[in-house]
Amino acid sequence: MSSTLGSSEAYENKFELMIVLLCAMAGTLMQALDTTIANVALPYMQGSLQASRDQITWVLTSYIVAAAIMTAPVGWFAARFGRKKFVIISLLGFTVTSMLCGMAQNLDQIVTFRLLQGVFGAALAPLSQSIMLDLYPAEKRGQVMAIWGMGIMVGPILGPTLGGYLTDHYTWRWVFYVNVPFGVAASTGIWLYLKDTVRNTKLRFDWSGFVVLAFGIGALQLMLDRGQTKNWFSSVEILAEAVVAGLGLYLFIVHMVTTSKPFIPKPLFKDRNFVSALALMFLIGLVLLASSALLPPYLQNLSGYSVTDTGLLMAPRGIGTMFAMMIVGRISNRVDARLLLGFGTMVILGTMWSMAHWNPSVSVYTLVSVSFTQGIGLGFVFIPANLVAFATLEGSLRTDASAFLNLIRNIGSAIGVSVTTTLLADNMQIAHASLASQITPFNRALFLNGPSLFWNTQLPTGLMGLNAMVQKNAAVIAYADDFFFMFLTCIPILIVILIMKAPPKVAALETAELIE
């Protein structure tokens, strides 16, 4: 799929170029925000829609599963029907279903509308990335990817903060209504100014490959999302989902290798840098969303911060990411991407090591500085990884590559959240049992002055207070173990960087800014 029509030369002036850039960015930001913005509103939705705690989680699960399944064939749809038409349909569909989610009157309605929202939203991030890559030449793509990356990286971080604010000051329905004006504006801008790509009307859809991949990804997402609540493989449901996931993914790989025209092009996997970038995206997704999921309950339940203060303390990481992306975007054409990746990885490793030694009394200064620094590390990894992924790929493969790259990152995020949540629960029980074993009549520290009054094991209030103290300390240990696990998870990034080839040099960047 040639990008001649989509290149910057096809636009009459920089105003049109700016509109297309902003509208593509709006789609990315909306989709990224909606992965986390509804999380804090679930308790309010549960009461309003008269749903149980297990039922209301389908509001999140339906969106995640639908988006994961529909990400893979994005490249085929764009090539077959034209990228412009596909973007407009995706934006309008996402906007309408967002409005319907806000208007839902019962659980069945909101789950259905969230599923459709995921179907339409799946294409927004890969299509916007493909559009932005086509708009500018190679020497300016670092800055363009920095702009796109801000939506991908900052969206999930700001989602809970914005969702909490809208829910507290209005109702949970505004968590979905907030998408409507931006969706309408983005759709209008794309319709007016985006130049279409060449359509290949002779393409035939690979239904066999799509069906087995859809079953594999859908079952994997369900297993990861529901495993913790169902006690993992002691549940028949989780076992069934694991079997379907394994079988579906295995059949997809066999089908892709044996068929002549799979809907995910084979040449993608012949590019060493793209395959290396897939591994990096998986690991980045694992760390990005997992750490975002762990920090809010840590700050609220252990350190005693309010929801508002927690949101403010989460913001420095997003600010650090944006700061790093602005720097990386300007130097990416002058510095070997592998050096930037190595620097970013070392920064992330340092911050994860620091977090593994936190305790609930950690100072605000430490929280802010470590979060900000970690954001810088993520920015230095995310942008070079995307540039390396597309550095040696043909232009016709960009949309398919972007879709698959986003799919792998989302799967990494799902696995990261699931694994860290499970480890947290298990390690908390282990730590609780270990600490509780020290509480015996022979432990004299429990019977001296203050402790003898507050933790008197002969009184119900004493037992409750003692158990609360043990539970809190067990949680501190479990969170530290999780942060250390993420530290270990980042180490393979260094190995992947060594496997990469040096990206080809591009022409020196002009003195003019990206957008004047």
Considering the chains and any ligands shown, give keywords for the structure.
516 residues; Growth Hormone, Chain: A; 3 domains; 20 helices; disordered N terminus
Can you summarize this structure?
With 516 residues, the protein is mainly alpha-helical. It contains 20 helices and no strands.
Structural write-up:
The longest helix is centred in the last third of the chain and has 40 residues, at 460-499. The chain is 74% helix and 0% strand. It has 20 helices and no strands. The chain has three domains: 1-200, Growth Hormone, Chain: A; 206-262; 267-516, Up-down Bundle (Growth Hormone, Chain: A), CATH 1.20.1250.20. Mean pLDDT is 77; it is low at 1-5 and 506-516. It is globular, with a radius of gyration of 24 Å. The two termini are 29 Å apart. With 516 residues, the protein is mainly alpha-helical. Helix 1 packs antiparallel against helix 8 (124-135) and helix 12 runs antiparallel to helix 13.
